[in-house]
Design a protein that fits this description.
This protein is α+β, with helices and mostly antiparallel strands and 76 residues long. Helix content is 36%, strand content 26%. A two-stranded parallel sheet has the order 1-2. It has a two-stranded antiparallel sheet with strand order 3-4.
Length: 76
């Protein structure tokens, strides 16, 4: 049974967005390896606490990720 592990920054994605991501990954897997895989595919979406990731040695925060998604350059 496939397990797809997705890590996201806490407080960035809504429940609906997480559900859409899980559905999308499941669809791709079932389309690729066969429909029987759909019912046994697990998608785990884990929220990582703000500041617990680093990029280029700098902490990544919830506000920073939300800014990136709005198109604001990192560090701006």
């Amino acid at each position: 049974m496939p397990i797809i592990d997705v890590k996201v920054m806490e407080g960035v994605l809504s429940r609906e967005q997480k559900q859409a991501i899980a559905q999308g990954f499941t669809d791709v897997l079932a389309d690729t390896v066969g429909e029987p895989a759909r019912g046994v595919t697990w998608v785990v979406i884990q929220d990582v606490a703000s500041g617990q990731w680093t990029m280029g040695g700098e902490p990544v925060t919830t506000d920073g990720v939300k800014g990136m998604l709005r198109g604001t350059p990192a560090g701006a």
